[in-house]
Design brief:
The complex is a heterodimer of chains A (240) and B (220). Chain A is α/β, with parallel strands linked by helices and 240 residues long. Chain A has a single domain (2-38, 50-237), classed as Rossmann fold (3-Layer(aba) Sandwich), CATH 3.40.50. In chain A, 38% of the residues lie in helices and 25% in strands. Chain A is built from 9 helices and 10 strands. In chain A, the strands form 2 sheets. Chain A has a 6-stranded mixed sheet with strand order 6-7-8-3-9-10, sandwiched between helices. In chain A, strands 2-1-4-5 form a 4-stranded antiparallel sheet, with helices on one face. In chain A, helix 3 (94-104) packs parallel to helix 5 (139-151) and helix 4 crosses helix 5. The two termini of chain A are 31 Å apart. Chain B starts with a helix and ends with a helix. Chain B has 10 helices and no strands. Chain B is flat, with a radius of gyration of 21 Å. Chain B is 84% helix and 0% strand. Chain B has one domain (16-219): MetI-like fold (Orthogonal Bundle), CATH 1.10.3720.10. The chains are: A alpha/beta (240), B mainly alpha (220). The A-B interface holds A 48, 50, 73-74, 76-81, 83, 85, 87-91, 100-101, 104-105, 135, 149-150, 153 and B 118, 120-121, 123-131, 134, 138-139, 142-143, 146, 220.
Chain lengths: 240, 220
């Protein structure tokens, strides 16, 4: 589903990603952990070209993102993304947030898009908030709307960029719950997170990234209970 | 006192100022509307990554902001007709001048408002597969427009007052009408007092509406 080959990314003189390679299979849930500034968000943002790739290749569902002939908008429409700060459109209602892209990108009518949107709102537990504006929602509700908005495009992959980091602690659970349901339904997911409990419970594989390289990867039991690398051990001893 | 012995002048000047009032309003409203179209265009050009497009907009804005409006109206009314052989009438020249002038200032308002929309909004739109043009149209522009309204209202008031300079090419606006009345009656105090009042008739309600909008805006 996702193949990354020797991915490098520099911001000016600073090299943030120093040659990442991996393959992520369909229906796999991969959690990316690591200290702040390690490049984990940048890695995720390269997967849908929100960051230009300096060198290397990212291939998603057969599309080579670095090939200039690839229609990047088409690829992005198949790759859902959820942001740390939700990035809901504040001038639109919850429902309008969700139906915008299906209408404008997929060409659905308003009626069709709404018909698809309502079950998604039900799925994230916000059926009664369809006509609300984002400002009137709590952080957890906003993030669940953002997830529904991404799902409305029927993506093949979902990317989560620290989806619970901006939430009050008591609201984290409701968002993780929705993500867990998604994982159980077989969604392919890449999740950058500080929630080690979630990574342990839901992740099929965990990547530990530090200073722009994958230091260690493996099933959660191995990473959390029996880390091989010294840097992984050091990081985990601080966060667990 | 002289002022109170000539109260008739306050009445007699009214028909003249009424004509001026209509002209001033016409020039300002049509001019600022065209200026908004120009401003939106140049404002978008100012955030273009294309250096040529950015350069054209920057040169335009700097020329307009760096020269007096009086020079601009003389250039358009006398200078351009000299060059092209087309004689613009005074009204058209006035509208064009205030449009070109307001356009440059509005371009900066538009640029600022667009850039004030959080970067995450563009990213969210693009991540859903919307093109950058679609994201601009459906997500960034509507948010920017709401932030533009207060500075646009200010620009309207500024442009309205600026049009008084166009009396220099004898367009029959409030200022010109007042000056004509003053010089034929020598009632300078009454004339210019009433000229001021006529400008205030437009500017004070405009400011009140603007303040109302800002208050509503802050609450949201």
């Amino acid at each position: 589903m996702i193949e990354v080959r020797d991915l490098h990314k520099s911001f000016g003189e600073t090299e943030v990603l120093k040659g990442l390679s991996t393959t992520i299979e369909e229906k796999e849930v991969v959690c990316v952990i690591g200290p702040s500034g390690s490049g984990k968000s940048t890695f995720l943002r390269c997967l849908n070209m929100l960051e230009d790739i300096t060198s290397g290749q990212v291939i998603i569902d057969g599309y080579d993102l670095t090939d200039s002939k690839t229609d990047i908008n088409l690829v992005r429409s198949e790759v859902g993304m959820v942001f740390q700060h939700f990035n809901l459109f504040p001038h639109m209602t919850v429902l309008e947030n969700i139906i915008l892209a299906p209408q404008k990108v997929r060409g659905l009518t308003k009626g069709e898009a709404e018909k698809n949107a309502l079950p998604l709102l039900g799925k994230v537990g916000l059926k009664d908030k369809a006509q609300a504006y984002p400002d009137s929602l709590s952080g957890g509700q906003k993030q669940r709307v953002a997830i529904a908005r991404a799902l409305a495009m029927n993506p093949k992959v979902m990317l989560f960029d620290e989806p619970t980091s901006a939430l009050d602690p008591e609201l984290v659970g409701e968002v993780l719950g929705v993500m867990k349901d998604l994982a159980q339904e077989g969604m392919t997911m890449v999740v950058v997170t500080h929630e080690m409990g979630f990574a342990k419970e839901v992740g099929d594989r965990v990547f530990f990234i530090d200073e722009g390289i994958f230091v260690e990867e493996g099933p959660p039991e191995q990473i959390f209970d029996n880390p091989q690398n010294e840097r992984t051990q050091g990081f985990l001893s601080k966060v667990l | 006192m002289y002022v109170f012995t000539t109260t008739n002048n306050y009445i007699q000047i009214l028909p003249d100022l009424w004509i001026g009032f209509l002209y001033t309003l016409l020039i300002t409203i049509v001019g600022v509307l065209i200026g908004f179209v120009l401003g939106a265009l140049f404002g978008l050009m100012r955030i273009s990554k294309n250096k040529v497009i950015y350069g054209i907009a920057t040169v335009y804005i700097e020329i307009v902001r760096g020269t007096p409006l009086l020079v601009q109206i003389f250039f358009i009314y006398y200078g351009l007709s000299d060059l092209t052989g087309i004689n613009l009438d005074k009204l058209t020249a006035s509208i064009l001048a205030i449009a070109a002038n307001a356009g440059a200032y509005i371009a900066e308002i538009v640029r600022g408002a667009i850039q004030s929309v959080e970067k995450g909004q563009m990213e969210a739109g693009r991540s859903l597969g919307l093109s950058s043009r679609q994201t601009m149209r459906y997500i960034i522009w509507p948010q920017a427009l709401r932030r533009m309204i207060p500075p646009l209202g200010n620009q309207f008031i500024i442009s309205l007052k600026d049009t008084s300079l166009f009396s220099a090419i004898a367009v029959t606006d409030i200022m010109y009408q007042g000056r004509q009345y003053a010089s034929s009656t020598f009632a300078y105090f009454e004339s210019y007092l009433m000229v001021g009042v006529f400008y205030l008739i437009i500017t004070i309600p405009s400011m009140l509406i603007l303040r109302q909008y800002e208050r509503r805006f802050e609450r949201e």
